[in-house]
Structure formats: structure tokens, C-alpha cells
Amino acid sequence: MPLSHPPPTEGTGLEPVLHLSGVTKSYARVVGESLARGRRQVLADVSLTIRRGEIYGFVGLNGAGKTTTIKIALGLTHPDAGTVRLFGEDVSADPCARVGYAPEKPGFASFLTGLEVLEYAARLLGCRLPGARFQEVLERVGLWDDRGKQVANYSKGMQQRLALAAAMLHDPDLYVLDEPSSGLDPLGRRLVKEILKELRRAGRTVFFSTHILADVREICDRIGVIHQGRMVFEGTLEQFNPTQGDLEERFVALIGAGLGVVPNGSSLDLESPQGIS
Q1: pLDDT, tens digit, for every residue of 51-65?
Q2: Model's pTM, two decimal places?
Q3: Are strands 99-102 and 174-178 parallel, antiparallel or unpaired?
Q4: Residue 9: is it exposed, middle or buried by C-beta count within 10 angstroms (0-12/13-18/19+)?
């Protein structure tokens, strides 16, 4: 499925592919058509690190700040404060060429066919790809037989899979996927998880947002939990849920505790007012 270039060399697994430090973002408050006084803060001192070759699950409720964080990480919007480093550099067009991005709500031109969407995406990326590559990615997401249909006739789940195919086209080093399982049926979710695990085996890095904890348990190497614009945990699943109890209960207990920032891999004591043991 990935193009033939070698995976990272041994010993590079801890290299940061993406690093956010102290990122803060606010927007003007709007009431009707008028600006209200003050600003609404959506991110507060968000820091996270995505390491080479891992699958990182970015977990949070709807409205927690996941999409805003992703947009800042890709340079699609700018933070009020904080820094973003992508492949060790400031976010710019060059490092972003090594990224495959699939938004939660892809805005495809409805009159294009699925194949035409990918051909257009390749032109935007400045890539000259053989026709076999389009077939390869469409077959992998289960859409080759629907390649001639207009996107207007695609279901939401089909459009999500088409967005993933577009992200895969140029075989990037880093995949940034915003709610990739949104709108998918169980078979579609299983397919996406299989693809993400294949990408990891090929040495690629995956950063995806979700609120589906079953997917997190199955495929993630590390997770970050964001709540009300603040990071409340970052670490491995074992560190997040050391008792291996119900993951949903653990998540609900964590965000319900109203914790502050938890250092990487810190254990949590929900009986402690600070939440750090």
C-alpha cells in the first residue's frame, strides 16, 4: 500500500515528528451578527509530542479542542501563543508536503467522481502519480468499484474513506486524521483501523482524533486526552489505565475530575485534589 521508500532506521522511534508547546488560542465572541466584548478561549497551554512510527490517539469530547489543535499543528490557523514544530522545523509548506491530512468533514466538489477527486488532489499536491497509484489507494479503502460515481452520491462513510485515500496518495511520513471513523459503519471502522496499523508497520506516523475509546484501546501506542481546551493526560494506555479496567469509566472519571495538565506518563490518582500521585 505505501510507496516503496524505507521505514525509519532503527533507533529513531523516539524522534518527535510533531511537537506543540504551550499553545493557546482564543476567538472573538459573536452574538448574532455583532462582536461581543472579550474573547472565548478554546485552547489553553496545550503541549503534546507525536513520535516517529507511532499511532497517537487524540481523545476528547465534542468541542474539547481537538480540531482546533489539529488546524494549528498544520498551520491552517495560528495560535495566540506557543510553538509548533513539524519534523523539527517551523510549520511551512515544505514540511507539510510530508503530511497527509483528512478532515472530519471533507468538502469535496459534489459534481466530481471519486477518481476525479483524487486526480485533483494530486495536482494540488504537485504530484505526478501513475494511474496504478489511484487504483491502489481506492481499492484499499474499498472505493475502486465506485470510482466513477459522483461524490454527491457517496454516503458520509464513503466520503470519509475517500478523504483517507486522498491523504494516502503521496505516501506521506505523517498522517493527521480528524475523526477518521466518523460516519463509518462497523465494517468501515474495521477497515480504517487495519489501514492505520498497516501504515505503522510501514514506518509511518499516525495522529488521529477520536472519541471512540474502543478504537483507542485496539490500535494506539500513546494517547493524549484534551478536555475544555486543556491537556489532562499524555502517555501510554498502560499509564492511562494501569488497572486495565473499563476504559470508558476511566475516561469519564478523568474528565469529571477537572484536572489540570498531567505530565507525560504521570500516573493519576483521582482521589488526589491535584490528580497526580
Answers
A1: 999 999 999 999 999
A2: 0.84
A3: parallel
A4: exposed
